[in-house]
Amino acid sequence: MARPVRVVVLGSGSWGTTVAGLAARNTPTLLWSRRPETADEINTEHRNSRYLGDHVLPDNLRATSDILEAANEADVLAVGVPSHAVRDTLSQISNEVRAWVPVLSLSKGLEPGTRQRPTEIISECLPGHPVGLLAGPNIAREVADGLAAAAVVATQDEDVAAALQPLFASRVFRVYRNTDVLGCELGGVLKNIVAIASGMADGLGVGDNTRAMVLARGLAEMTRLGESMGANPRTFAGLTGIGDLIATCMSPASRNRRVGEAIARGLTVDEAVKELGQVAEGVKTAPTVMELARDYNVEMPIAAEVEAVVAGRRTPADAYRGLRKVQPGGEDEVA
Ligand SMILES: NC(=O)C1=CN([C@@H]2O[C@H](COP(=O)(O)OP(=O)(O)OC[C@H]3O[C@@H](n4cnc5c(N)ncnc54)[C@H](OP(=O)(O)O)[C@@H]3O)[C@@H](O)[C@H]2O)C=CC1
Ligand SMILES: O=C(CO)COP(=O)(O)O
């Protein structure tokens, strides 16, 4: 009898731990944590208290702080460290992962400097492996608590996606497929910046109409940039686009939204990130997205204001005043 597929998840933050918990319900799963004490807590108490509070993980989820052990065990590898750590993490195991092991990114950011998406970094660090991503409107704690949600496995190869779907799916976690890797990945990256704008709007005490405007025009910016880079614009109308945008802009648990709100309450960006104690990818991604917008000659007024705020050149109130000065054009054109 064939042995079951072994899933390895790298990164024991809120999302890596949650995805490992999903996989462990379907197949043997090992979670790598860079902190031995976190691996111990998961193995002995079945919790990751720093990131998921008192949430109880499946008994059969195993953890290790030995990254070589993790890499050697993988039949499927999921990379759940923040995007700025993907290259460094994978460079430690580039000779350890068996050929043809599919590698899925869970990260939603861009690498500063190279401007690369996590799947591009994975392809460089682990050449020849099938590469894809798992993304969608997935606030970690809600998924961990078993509240119904859906995600997308995006890979160019439909057969690989079809093999990966059941490893992460459950009765309440629906996993769809998509071959538009670029569009799905950009949706997850770009919505974080709009979520910071949405949080700033909340912190400034604006109404629901303003919030809806930020979401709708933010989606227009995301779609414009994505289409210019070669993504299918329809992808942005799906789970990884508008779906993730709504979840992240509306949820009080979203870290990007919370950072925006904290800045609008008067904290500096550094203070807001420190208060959060978790990753808010949009803070580091905003300048990189504006570089892409310039390269592809795409207007992104909301992202531009967010970038100016996180760089300390503008206050949230000035950013919103700035947005009011943008002359509205045809709705499907610019600004
Ligand atoms: N949380 C969510 O709801 C979702 C998050 N994501 C994405 O998943 C990715 C991870 O986010 P999330 O789990 O939430 O982040 P968290 O802030 O919850 O955790 C980050 C994890 O990455 C580890 N880490 C940080 N820096 C490094 C490094 N240089 N090398 C190795 N490990 C490192 C941390 O380790 P340590 O504890 O030791 O600092 C921690 O385990 C992000 O790209 C995020 O956008 C995607 C969907 C949902
Ligand atoms: O990507 C997420 C939900 O899909 C999580 O968003 P935050 O990183 O803003 O918490």
TrEMBL record:
EC number: 1.1.1.94
Domain Glycerol-3-phosphate dehydrogenase NAD-dependent N-terminal: 7-160
Binding site for NAD(+): 11-16, 140, 255
Pathway: Membrane lipid metabolism; glycerophospholipid metabolism
Active site residues of this protein: 191 (proton acceptor)
Location(s) in or outside the cell: Cytoplasm
Domain annotation Glycerol-3-phosphate dehydrogenase NAD-dependent C-terminal: ranges: 180-319
A Pfam family: NAD_Gly3P_dh_C
GO cellular component: cytosol
InterPro entries linked to this entry: 6-PGluconate_DH-like_C_sf (IPR008927), 6PGD_dom2 (IPR013328), G3P_DH_NAD-dep (IPR006168), G3P_DH_NAD-dep_C (IPR006109), G3P_DH_NAD-dep_N (IPR011128), NAD(P)-bd_dom_sf (IPR036291)
GO BP term, pick one: glycerol-3-phosphate biosynthetic process
Enzymatic class: oxidoreductase
Binding residue positions for substrate: 108, 255-256
Residues binding sn-glycerol 3-phosphate, per UniProt: 108, 136, 191, 244, 254-256
Catalytically driven reaction(s): sn-glycerol 3-phosphate + NAD(+) = dihydroxyacetone phosphate + NADH + H(+); sn-glycerol 3-phosphate + NADP(+) = dihydroxyacetone phosphate + NADPH + H(+)
Keywords (A to Z) from UniProt: Cytoplasm, Lipid biosynthesis, Lipid metabolism, NAD, NADP, Nucleotide-binding, Oxidoreductase, Phospholipid biosynthesis, Phospholipid metabolism
Residues annotated as binding NADPH: 14-15, 34-35, 51, 108, 140, 255, 279, 281
Molecular function (Gene Ontology), one example: glycerol-3-phosphate dehydrogenase (NAD+) activity
The keyword Ribosomal protein is assigned to this record: no
Function of the protein: Catalyzes the reduction of the glycolytic intermediate dihydroxyacetone phosphate (DHAP) to sn-glycerol 3-phosphate (G3P), the key precursor for phospholipid synthesis.
Similarity comment: family membership: Belongs to the NAD-dependent glycerol-3-phosphate dehydrogenase family.
HAMAP family associated with the record: NAD_Glyc3P_dehydrog (MF_00394)
Protein name stated in the entry: Glycerol-3-phosphate dehydrogenase [NAD(P)+]
Species whose genome carries this gene: Rhodococcus spongiicola
Gene name linked to the record: gpsA
